Amino acid sequence: xxxxxxxxxxxxxxxxxxxxxxxxxxxxxxxDYNFATDNEAWxxxxxxxxxxxxxxxELNFEYSTLPETLDQTKGALKISGNNHSDDLFMFVKxxxxxxxxxxxxxxxxxxxxxxNVADGxxxxxxxxxxxxxxxxxxxxxxxxxxxxxxxxxRINIDTGNQAQEGDDMxxxxxxxxxxxxxxxxxxxxxxxxxxxxxxNMNGELxxxxxxxxxxxxxxxxxYNRIKATLN
Length: 231
Prior knowledge:
mainly beta, Jelly Rolls, 5-stranded antiparallel beta sheet, 15 strands, disordered N terminus
């Protein structure tokens, strides 16, 4: 009996030692927003347009339902603008917290949105689908539009320019709906390449999703789901 008890104790000791010596496993932090009842603290804004031209550019951000041809019982972030500058940047942003301060995180984005532009369409300045680039990213500082010396609003983080990526945003894909129909259809994009961002000293990051485009007319996009997985 004593020998049996000793063997049990040895087994428990070995298991405990193995658990103690194991390397800690990285845990995913998932931030998932589907806008079922409201905007879930997401904010919309615009950059790359002149001071005072908000009405001329037809800038609009609001909480909405999905458009016709889709399930209008579901909520979405609706953002729209007329790209007179040939470089309008429309974006939504949200602060997340509870992260480890000054820590680098790998981020996978999954963005679902509604597009009404069929593949291979032609438009002024470029395609209304393939020339409208969907970007996502994160920054330790809040993305803000700031007025430059020429009285144009510019974004204060590195988003890149149209098809080009920046330090704070990557290109996920384009606005075309992958069909031959000019009706709103849901499309999902995610990043296949690695994207890394560092939290600030308060353990915070600002998530940002946006459109950067050369198509010189109106684009209206509905974000139905925004998901960011951090590890």
